[in-house]
From TrEMBL:
Top-level taxon: Bacteria
Keyword Hydrolase part of the UniProt annotation: no
A Pfam family this chain is assigned to: DUF347
UniProt name for this protein: Membrane-anchored protein
Species in which this protein is naturally found: Aeromicrobium fastidiosum
Keywords: Membrane, Transmembrane, Transmembrane helix
Record field: transmembrane: 47-66, 78-98, 104-122, 142-163, 169-187, 194-212, 224-247
Lineage: Bacteria, Bacillati, Actinomycetota, Actinomycetes, Propionibacteriales
Spans annotated as Disordered: 257-284
Keyword Zinc: no
Ranges of Polar residues composition bias in the record: 257-276
Protein backbone atom coordinates (compact mmCIF):
# COMPACT_ATOMS: atom_id res chain seq x y z
CA UNK A 1 0.00 0.00 0.00
CA UNK A 2 1.42 3.35 -1.04
CA UNK A 3 0.77 6.23 1.31
CA UNK A 4 1.00 9.60 -0.31
CA UNK A 5 1.52 12.69 1.79
CA UNK A 6 -0.94 15.47 1.16
CA UNK A 7 0.72 18.87 1.00
CA UNK A 8 -0.61 21.50 3.36
CA UNK A 9 -2.93 24.00 1.76
CA UNK A 10 -1.19 27.36 1.38
CA UNK A 11 -2.62 30.18 3.40
CA UNK A 12 -4.18 33.13 1.60
CA UNK A 13 -1.61 35.86 0.99
CA UNK A 14 -1.84 39.61 0.46
CA UNK A 15 0.24 41.98 -1.63
CA UNK A 16 1.09 44.22 1.32
CA UNK A 17 0.46 44.14 5.07
CA UNK A 18 -3.18 44.43 6.13
CA UNK A 19 -2.34 46.62 9.11
CA UNK A 20 -1.34 50.30 8.95
CA UNK A 21 2.06 51.88 9.18
CA UNK A 22 2.81 52.80 12.79
CA UNK A 23 3.36 56.51 13.36
CA UNK A 24 2.06 59.21 15.72
CA UNK A 25 -1.52 59.25 14.41
CA UNK A 26 -1.72 55.47 14.79
CA UNK A 27 -1.21 55.83 18.54
CA UNK A 28 -3.62 58.76 18.80
CA UNK A 29 -6.41 56.77 17.14
CA UNK A 30 -5.55 53.72 19.23
CA UNK A 31 -5.97 55.80 22.40
CA UNK A 32 -9.30 57.11 21.09
CA UNK A 33 -10.56 53.57 20.52
CA UNK A 34 -9.58 52.53 24.04
CA UNK A 35 -11.47 55.45 25.52
CA UNK A 36 -14.44 54.74 23.26
CA UNK A 37 -14.48 51.11 24.31
CA UNK A 38 -14.66 52.09 27.98
CA UNK A 39 -17.10 54.99 27.67
CA UNK A 40 -19.23 53.22 25.06
CA UNK A 41 -19.60 50.08 27.17
CA UNK A 42 -20.55 52.17 30.21
CA UNK A 43 -23.06 54.22 28.24
CA UNK A 44 -24.71 51.25 26.54
CA UNK A 45 -24.85 49.47 29.88
CA UNK A 46 -26.89 52.32 31.37
CA UNK A 47 -29.31 52.18 28.43
CA UNK A 48 -29.82 48.42 28.20
CA UNK A 49 -27.64 45.45 29.08
CA UNK A 50 -29.13 43.27 26.29
CA UNK A 51 -28.60 46.12 23.81
CA UNK A 52 -25.02 46.54 24.96
CA UNK A 53 -24.39 42.81 24.52
CA UNK A 54 -26.02 42.77 21.08
CA UNK A 55 -23.99 45.73 19.83
CA UNK A 56 -20.77 44.57 21.48
CA UNK A 57 -20.89 40.96 20.33
CA UNK A 58 -22.81 41.40 17.07
CA UNK A 59 -20.81 44.42 15.95
CA UNK A 60 -17.54 42.68 16.77
CA UNK A 61 -18.40 39.56 14.76
CA UNK A 62 -19.69 41.44 11.71
CA UNK A 63 -16.85 43.96 11.47
CA UNK A 64 -14.18 41.34 12.13
CA UNK A 65 -15.68 39.13 9.40
CA UNK A 66 -15.56 42.01 6.93
CA UNK A 67 -11.93 42.72 7.87
CA UNK A 68 -10.82 39.10 7.54
CA UNK A 69 -12.49 38.52 4.18
CA UNK A 70 -10.91 41.62 2.61
CA UNK A 71 -7.73 41.27 0.55
CA UNK A 72 -6.25 44.66 1.36
CA UNK A 73 -5.90 47.27 4.06
CA UNK A 74 -8.40 50.11 4.36
CA UNK A 75 -8.30 52.54 7.31
CA UNK A 76 -12.08 52.69 7.82
CA UNK A 77 -12.46 48.92 7.88
CA UNK A 78 -9.36 48.37 10.03
CA UNK A 79 -10.11 51.01 12.65
CA UNK A 80 -13.79 50.04 12.92
CA UNK A 81 -12.52 46.56 13.72
CA UNK A 82 -10.22 47.95 16.41
CA UNK A 83 -13.11 50.00 17.81
CA UNK A 84 -15.39 46.94 17.92
CA UNK A 85 -12.62 44.94 19.61
CA UNK A 86 -12.26 47.74 22.18
CA UNK A 87 -15.97 47.60 23.02
CA UNK A 88 -16.12 43.80 23.06
CA UNK A 89 -12.81 43.54 24.94
CA UNK A 90 -14.13 45.82 27.68
CA UNK A 91 -17.19 43.61 28.09
CA UNK A 92 -15.27 40.33 28.29
CA UNK A 93 -12.77 41.87 30.72
CA UNK A 94 -15.50 43.19 33.03
CA UNK A 95 -17.65 40.06 32.69
CA UNK A 96 -15.73 37.69 35.02
CA UNK A 97 -15.49 40.37 37.72
CA UNK A 98 -19.17 41.33 37.53
CA UNK A 99 -20.60 37.83 37.10
CA UNK A 100 -18.13 35.67 39.06
CA UNK A 101 -16.70 38.27 41.43
CA UNK A 102 -13.08 37.50 40.52
CA UNK A 103 -10.64 40.30 41.44
CA UNK A 104 -9.32 42.40 38.57
CA UNK A 105 -5.79 41.40 39.58
CA UNK A 106 -6.67 37.74 39.00
CA UNK A 107 -8.30 38.60 35.67
CA UNK A 108 -5.14 40.50 34.72
CA UNK A 109 -2.99 37.45 35.45
CA UNK A 110 -5.25 35.18 33.39
CA UNK A 111 -5.22 37.55 30.41
CA UNK A 112 -1.45 37.92 30.68
CA UNK A 113 -0.97 34.15 30.54
CA UNK A 114 -3.35 33.85 27.58
CA UNK A 115 -1.56 36.67 25.77
CA UNK A 116 1.88 35.17 26.33
CA UNK A 117 0.60 31.78 25.18
CA UNK A 118 -0.88 33.20 21.99
CA UNK A 119 2.26 35.19 21.20
CA UNK A 120 4.38 32.07 21.71
CA UNK A 121 2.09 30.10 19.39
CA UNK A 122 2.22 32.88 16.81
CA UNK A 123 6.02 33.04 17.01
CA UNK A 124 6.40 29.27 16.76
CA UNK A 125 4.00 29.04 13.81
CA UNK A 126 5.16 32.03 11.77
CA UNK A 127 8.69 32.77 12.95
CA UNK A 128 7.88 36.44 13.56
CA UNK A 129 5.57 38.67 15.58
CA UNK A 130 6.22 41.75 13.47
CA UNK A 131 3.15 43.79 12.56
CA UNK A 132 4.89 44.61 9.29
CA UNK A 133 4.50 41.00 8.19
CA UNK A 134 0.70 40.62 8.33
CA UNK A 135 0.61 39.42 4.72
CA UNK A 136 -1.23 36.11 5.17
CA UNK A 137 -4.67 35.20 6.47
CA UNK A 138 -3.15 33.03 9.21
CA UNK A 139 -0.97 35.84 10.52
CA UNK A 140 -3.93 38.19 10.46
CA UNK A 141 -5.93 35.80 12.63
CA UNK A 142 -3.05 35.68 15.11
CA UNK A 143 -2.89 39.48 15.00
CA UNK A 144 -6.56 40.05 15.83
CA UNK A 145 -6.53 37.39 18.53
CA UNK A 146 -3.58 39.18 20.12
CA UNK A 147 -5.30 42.56 19.81
CA UNK A 148 -8.39 41.21 21.56
CA UNK A 149 -6.35 39.84 24.46
CA UNK A 150 -4.41 43.11 24.83
CA UNK A 151 -7.69 44.97 25.26
CA UNK A 152 -8.87 42.45 27.85
CA UNK A 153 -5.56 42.65 29.73
CA UNK A 154 -5.38 46.43 29.58
CA UNK A 155 -8.95 46.78 30.82
CA UNK A 156 -8.38 44.47 33.78
CA UNK A 157 -5.09 46.17 34.71
CA UNK A 158 -6.64 49.63 34.51
CA UNK A 159 -9.57 48.63 36.73
CA UNK A 160 -7.20 46.95 39.18
CA UNK A 161 -5.16 50.13 39.67
CA UNK A 162 -8.05 52.58 39.68
CA UNK A 163 -10.50 50.57 41.81
CA UNK A 164 -8.82 47.75 43.74
CA UNK A 165 -5.57 49.62 44.44
CA UNK A 166 -7.48 52.83 45.12
CA UNK A 167 -5.44 55.08 42.82
CA UNK A 168 -8.50 56.59 41.20
CA UNK A 169 -8.75 57.72 37.61
CA UNK A 170 -6.48 60.77 37.73
CA UNK A 171 -3.54 58.96 39.31
CA UNK A 172 -4.07 56.01 36.97
CA UNK A 173 -3.65 58.43 34.07
CA UNK A 174 -0.37 59.61 35.57
CA UNK A 175 0.79 56.03 36.21
CA UNK A 176 0.09 54.70 32.73
CA UNK A 177 1.19 57.94 31.11
CA UNK A 178 4.61 57.39 32.67
CA UNK A 179 4.67 53.63 32.00
CA UNK A 180 3.91 54.06 28.31
CA UNK A 181 7.09 56.13 27.98
CA UNK A 182 9.12 53.06 28.98
CA UNK A 183 8.66 51.08 25.73
CA UNK A 184 9.22 54.31 23.80
CA UNK A 185 12.52 54.85 25.57
CA UNK A 186 13.54 51.21 25.12
CA UNK A 187 12.69 51.38 21.42
CA UNK A 188 14.81 54.49 20.98
CA UNK A 189 17.62 52.70 22.84
CA UNK A 190 17.56 49.91 20.27
CA UNK A 191 15.45 47.27 22.03
CA UNK A 192 13.47 44.97 19.73
CA UNK A 193 10.76 47.00 17.98
CA UNK A 194 8.21 44.16 18.04
CA UNK A 195 8.53 43.71 21.81
CA UNK A 196 8.24 47.43 22.53
CA UNK A 197 5.30 47.78 20.12
CA UNK A 198 3.18 45.16 21.88
CA UNK A 199 4.14 46.52 25.31
CA UNK A 200 2.97 49.99 24.26
CA UNK A 201 -0.14 48.50 22.65
CA UNK A 202 -1.18 46.92 25.95
CA UNK A 203 -0.50 50.11 27.94
CA UNK A 204 -2.61 52.32 25.67
CA UNK A 205 -5.68 50.46 26.87
CA UNK A 206 -5.59 51.38 30.58
CA UNK A 207 -4.32 54.87 29.71
CA UNK A 208 -7.16 55.65 27.29
CA UNK A 209 -9.75 53.99 29.51
CA UNK A 210 -8.58 55.94 32.57
CA UNK A 211 -8.91 59.20 30.64
CA UNK A 212 -12.43 58.25 29.51
CA UNK A 213 -13.44 57.26 33.05
CA UNK A 214 -11.97 60.47 34.49
CA UNK A 215 -13.90 62.59 31.99
CA UNK A 216 -17.18 60.71 32.39
CA UNK A 217 -17.29 59.78 36.08
CA UNK A 218 -19.12 61.93 38.61
CA UNK A 219 -17.29 64.40 40.83
CA UNK A 220 -17.96 62.12 43.80
CA UNK A 221 -16.21 59.27 41.96
CA UNK A 222 -13.21 61.48 41.17
CA UNK A 223 -14.15 62.47 37.63
CA UNK A 224 -15.15 65.62 35.78
CA UNK A 225 -18.80 64.61 35.54
CA UNK A 226 -19.26 64.87 31.77
CA UNK A 227 -21.14 61.58 31.61
CA UNK A 228 -20.36 58.50 29.54
CA UNK A 229 -22.75 59.57 26.78
CA UNK A 230 -20.97 62.88 26.18
CA UNK A 231 -17.55 61.23 26.30
CA UNK A 232 -18.71 58.57 23.83
CA UNK A 233 -20.09 61.15 21.41
CA UNK A 234 -17.02 63.39 21.58
CA UNK A 235 -14.72 60.42 21.11
CA UNK A 236 -16.65 59.24 18.06
CA UNK A 237 -16.33 62.66 16.43
CA UNK A 238 -12.55 62.74 16.97
CA UNK A 239 -12.24 59.11 15.85
CA UNK A 240 -14.20 59.74 12.65
CA UNK A 241 -12.15 62.84 11.83
CA UNK A 242 -8.82 61.04 12.27
CA UNK A 243 -9.85 57.97 10.25
CA UNK A 244 -11.30 60.16 7.49
CA UNK A 245 -7.96 61.95 7.27
CA UNK A 246 -6.16 58.64 6.81
CA UNK A 247 -8.67 57.47 4.21
CA UNK A 248 -8.10 60.65 2.20
CA UNK A 249 -4.31 60.90 2.51
CA UNK A 250 -3.29 57.21 2.60
CA UNK A 251 -0.54 58.23 5.03
CA UNK A 252 -0.69 54.87 6.81
CA UNK A 253 -0.61 52.53 3.81
CA UNK A 254 2.40 50.25 3.38
CA UNK A 255 4.16 50.95 0.08
CA UNK A 256 5.86 47.57 -0.29
CA UNK A 257 5.32 43.99 0.73
CA UNK A 258 7.04 42.59 3.79
CA UNK A 259 10.30 40.78 3.17
CA UNK A 260 9.63 38.30 5.97
CA UNK A 261 9.23 34.76 4.66
CA UNK A 262 5.86 33.06 4.85
CA UNK A 263 5.81 29.52 6.18
CA UNK A 264 3.74 26.87 4.39
CA UNK A 265 2.81 29.26 1.63
CA UNK A 266 4.07 31.03 -1.47
CA UNK A 267 6.43 33.97 -1.28
CA UNK A 268 4.83 37.36 -0.88
CA UNK A 269 7.51 39.47 -2.50
CA UNK A 270 6.51 41.91 -5.24
CA UNK A 271 8.23 43.48 -8.17
CA UNK A 272 9.50 47.04 -8.24
CA UNK A 273 6.44 48.02 -10.25
CA UNK A 274 4.10 46.44 -7.70
CA UNK A 275 5.85 48.28 -4.87
CA UNK A 276 5.57 51.59 -6.66
CA UNK A 277 1.83 51.10 -7.20
CA UNK A 278 1.05 49.48 -3.83
CA UNK A 279 -0.14 52.63 -2.08
CA UNK A 280 -2.85 53.28 -4.61
CA UNK A 281 -3.97 49.65 -4.78
CA UNK A 282 -3.93 48.86 -1.08
CA UNK A 283 -6.83 51.14 -0.19
CA UNK A 284 -10.03 49.89 -1.78
Amino acid sequence: MIVRSVPAMPTRTFRVSKVPEVFVLFWIIKLLTTGEGEAGADFLGTVSIPLAAAIGIGGFLVVLWLQLRADSYHPVRYWLTVLSVALFGTMIADGPHVVLGTPYAVDSGIYLLLLCGLLAWWRRSEGTLSVHSITTARRERFYWGTVLLTFGLGTAVGDATAIEMGLGFAWSIVLFGVLILVPLGLWRAGVDATLTFWAAYVLTRPLGASVADWLGASHRAGGLGWGSGVVTGLGLVLFAAAVTYLARTHRDVHTSASTTSVRSGPATGSSATDSANARGRAVR
